[in-house]
Amino acid sequence: MWATVTTSLTMAQTAAPGLGVGGWSGAARPTPGCQETRQWLIQGSEPQPALGASKGRWAPPAMTAAPGQALSALLLTLLLGLTGGQPSISLVGPTRRTTPENPVPFNCTAGPFNSSDFNVTWMKDRDEHPASAQRLVTDNKGNYSITSKVWVTLFHQDILSEITCEVMHRGLAKPLRRSMNLSRVLQVVPTLKITAQPSAVQIRVHQRVNLTCHVSRFYPSHLHLTWMENRHKVQTVESPQVTRNPDGTYSLQHTWQVEATLDGREFACWVVQDEQPPVQANITLRAQASRLGKGMSSYSSALQGPFQRSEPGTNIQLTFTSSGFSTGQVTVTWLKNSHQLLKSQTSVHPRGDIYNVTSRVLLLLEADDVHSLVHCQVKHMSTLVSQKTIRLEQYLRVPPTVTVSQSSQSLDVVAVTCHVQRFYPQNVHLSWLENCHTFKRAVQPSPKQNSDGTYTLESLHLVNASVWESERVLTCKVQHETQPPIQASLILSTAVQDTYKLLGSTGPEMPAFLMAFLLGFKVVLVISFIATYFHRWWNL
């Protein structure tokens, strides 16, 4: 639903879209890129140029495709018969929240009036804001109604601001006025950071550490927070407690207690707000090894890789560190799935009475490395003293391949399927868009794991072909991890529908088959007749 504010019931009867005094007609269809642009009766400046307008000539625009405009017209029509002609006003905003620095439209509708002698004023807080377009409509009784449109660029501080539409007419004792808080259409994305107490550089083995995720300056207040350890989810908080800032935004702090180890672990705080891509912050904890006394020998080691996932075809580096060796006779061997890796470098450094070892290996990630293991074997004086194993799945990201296909289930229903194939990890968000408008009630399908460890999913969307417009663009949009969304589109039109039905019919194939059968039968009869004739002639 559009964000709508109304006072009393509106009473003007509007003409059909594109008709009426001062009405507009014609439309610019949104492209699959979703930059929707419409033509208006220009009074100020429009944030986007009009499509389809020839140079030096004004092209009258249409309002048939915008939900807010259709809603305004519906309110005028329905409420006119209920209020006995008393003037009223309504204010309609955008359907979805928008981040700062972006313009959003508002539509103000007022009427009915007995003349067109009225004036519309837009105010943002106490400052007047110029209108972008307005439309005058008359009903069959000669009453007038006005719809005015304004574009407002949002800012962070607009959470406490409001937009006001005021309509003055000589027949009114006081102006009609309606306001809407800009916080209803604004979305502020949070900033994140993680702190550790005690400090990450001072922790010891098995010491408890408090990790705090600081989520700052976001709006609205609803979000959910997830803690990850080595890229695996360990805790989710659906509605954490928040505090309000003086500027109207919100902030929160959430603390999670962990244990420090010598191996080192990566922790991440993820925040998801509405349908926005997740925001995250990372921290790595590694305990400091205790100093060894003279004559003592104790090994401590750690094996780690990069902090971010990489796609197949990328070289990543794994690093093994160990300390506590009494001599420098240390060798390190790297194996991937029992096959030795040759691109490794090992160095041994003395430090007092002990020796420290650092070994690095470079390996190429492949799409089927979800199940791959890398082993690091350490020998001291020819004796195996340590073996570390790491799974490559935690460093691998396989982007999905997204395609769409269509099939006909009946004459009135077309099934459009989105195929999301071979991706890893399984965290994806799929959404359907029709002419750039998102279906909010779309069910999220569950991915199925393939034999190679990657995932695949399919989403079915049914389209009512009986109410097709001249052309509809269906888009499947897939958000994988924090990567830019991948999408595939399919254009459905009445011409495609007719062609599809024609290709789906098997009627024309039957006459061709019968003709071929009859022709072949005649040829066989002729050959048989000739053979019989020559056989009898030869016997004579």
By CATH reckoning, the class of the largest domain would read Mainly Beta
Radius of gyration: 35 Å
Query: CATH superfamily of the largest domain, please?
Result: Immunoglobulins
Instruction: Report the helical percentage.
Output: 10-25%
Structural features, described:
11% of the residues lie in helices and 44% in strands. With 540 residues, the chain is mostly beta strands. The chain has three domains: 4-184, Immunoglobulin-like; 191-290 and 299-395, Sandwich (Immunoglobulin-like), CATH 2.60.40; 401-504, Immunoglobulins (Immunoglobulin-like), CATH 2.60.40. The strands form eight sheets. Strands 1-2-3-7-6 form a five-stranded antiparallel sheet, covered by helices on one side. A hairpin with a 5-residue loop joins strand 6 (133-138) and strand 7. Mean pLDDT is 77; it is low at 1-69, 75-83, 290-297 and 496-512.
Short description:
This protein is mainly β and 540 residues long. Helices cover 11% and strands 44% of the residues.
What order do the helices and strands come in, and which of them pair?
Elements: E1 4-6, H1 67-83, E2 88-92, E3 103-113, E4 118-124, E5 127-129, E6 133-138, E7 144-153, E8 162-169, E9 176-181, E10 191-197, E11 208-218, E12 224-229, E13 232-237, E14 243-244, E15 250-259, E16 265-272, E17 279-285, E18 300-304, E19 315-325, E20 330-336, E21 339-340, E22 344-351, E23 354-364, E24 373-380, E25 383-391, E26 401-408, E27 413-423, E28 428-434, E29 437-438, E30 448-449, E31 455-464, E32 471-480, E33 486-493, H2 494-504, H3 509-539
Antiparallel strand pairs: 1-2, 2-3, 3-7, 4-5, 4-8, 6-7, 8-9, 10-11, 11-15, 12-13, 12-16, 14-15, 16-17, 18-19, 19-23, 20-21, 20-24, 22-23, 24-25, 26-27, 27-31, 28-29, 28-32, 30-31, 32-33
